[in-house]
Amino acid sequence: MRQIVLDTETTGLDWRNGDRVIEIGCVELLNRGLTGRHFHVYINPQRAIDAEAVAVHGITEDFLADKPKFADVALGFEDFVRDAELVIHNASFDVGFLDHELALLGRARLADLCAGVIDTLKLAKEQNPGKKASLDALCDRYEIDNAHRELHGALLDAELLAEVYLAMTRGQESLMIGLEDDSVPRELDAGGLPVLRAALKVLRPTENELEAHASVLGDIAKANKGLCLWLPPAEEPAPAS
Description:
- By secondary structure, the chain is of the alpha/beta class.
- It has helices at 51-57, 61-64, 70-81, 91-104, 110-113, 120-127, 135-141, 154-168, 207-223; strands spanning 2-10, 21-30, 33-42, 85-88, 116-119.
- A hairpin with a 2-residue loop joins strand 2 (21-30) and strand 3.
- The chain starts with a strand and ends in an 18-residue tail after the last helix.
């Protein structure tokens, strides 16, 4: 199972008003493990950046002046996320911006490129209704160190979100540990060796015990006017003569 945890930074809050993507950060998960592979680019949006946005991510127009345009990085981005399931916090925001960027180039939308999208904001609200669901709040809840996060950054936020997502979805898989797994704590003897225990014996009733059991059930049924919780009515034994 290949998943891509993704985050973006933008010039503003709404692509419908002409805002553009200025940073993309992605990290790869394979079978719920970080692979170390990532995709990270800064992008020249060819437009001004809202002051409010700069206050959030600290990315300025001067810094982006010599960076590539989205058209220059689109193919590399598509190759990295293709056929993977995306994991995004507040997915409608990032997907809206990226779909807009792709549409400007006449390229396919993320829905056609990827296997699906998991919105961790929606997931967090479902798991803990009424509680804060920001990335910082989730880092606190799952004890993930984000002290180095002074400003938003796409790659840093994607890395933090990957840890949050794994913690949020760990669920019962932590209980499905194989008995032969060396990570399972085992009882050790004084010499530090595993304690070997004899196999449990399965004791089966004898014919006499079965007859005695049936007799007791018959007495119960007789005392309760034919009703016995341990016997269907059709199988109640006949009263002893």
